[in-house]
Every structure is written in C-alpha cells, then in structure tokens.
C-alpha cells in the first residue's frame, strides 16, 4: 500500500507540475499575442503617419512647383511686354526721325 500511495503522490506532484507548466505556457502565449497585437497596431499607425507625411510633402512640392511656374510665367510675360514696349518706342522714334529728315529735305529743296 505504501508503494501505491508513493506512486500516487509522485503522479499527483508530476500532474500538478504539468498543469502549472501548461498554465504558464498559456499565460505566456496570451501575453505574446497581446504584445504582437500592440506591435501590429503601432506598425500600422506608424505606416499611416509616414504615408500622410509623404502625402503632405508631395502636395507641398506640387504647390511649390505650381508657384514657381506661375512666377516664371509672370516674369516672361513682363519681359515680353517690356521688350515689345521698348521695340515700339524705338520704331516710333525711327519713324519720327525719318519724317523729320524728310521734312528737312523738303525744306532744303524748297530753299
């Protein structure tokens, strides 16, 4: 009988140790599952933040390019207008000078 009790005692201790080990394993797995879920949540949040940051940078770059393009267009229009104005002044002066010369020639020929 002592052998049976001893065997049952060893088996119960072994079973208790096995149950404790299984409970520890389950707790560890649940803890790792929670940590993994938190890591995935942070990863998705970081990914969203990075994507929105890049989207803002792209929008800023497009806005800057459009602004530079508009500025260059305005400067080209201004330069073209100034050039046309200068050319018109020169042509007007040339025409006026031509008519002055013609009138002086007529006066000289009359005299």
Describe the protein in words.
- With 111 residues, the protein is an all-alpha fold.
- Helices cover 98% and strands 0% of the residues.
- The chain contains 1 helix and no strands.
- The chain has one helix at 2-110.
- The radius of gyration is 47 Å and the shape is rod-shaped.
- The protein starts with a helix and ends with a helix.
- The model has no long low-confidence stretch (mean pLDDT 92).
Strand content: under 5%
Helical content (DSSP H or I, runs of 4+): over 70%
Poorly predicted runs are none
Order of helices and strands: H
Round the Cα radius of gyration to an integer and report it: 47 Å
Instruction: Give the distance, in angstroms, between the N- and C-terminal Cα atoms.
Output: 162 Å
Mean pLDDT: 92
Instruction: Please identify the structural class as seen in this structure.
Output: mainly alpha
Shape: rod-shaped
């Amino acid at each position: 009988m002592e052998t049976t009790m001893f065997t049952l005692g060893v088996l119960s201790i072994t079973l208790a140790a096995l149950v404790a080990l299984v409970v520890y394993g389950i707790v560890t797995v649940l803890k790792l599952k929670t940590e993994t879920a938190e890591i995935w949540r942070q990863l998705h949040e970081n990914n969203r933040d990075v994507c929105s940051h890049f989207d803002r940078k792209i929008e800023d770059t497009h806005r800057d390019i459009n602004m530079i393009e508009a500025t260059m267009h305005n400067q080209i229009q201004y330069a073209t207008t100034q050039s046309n104005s200068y050319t018109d002044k020169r042509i007007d002066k040339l025409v006026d000078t031509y008519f002055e010369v013609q009138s002086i020639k007529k006066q000289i020929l009359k005299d």
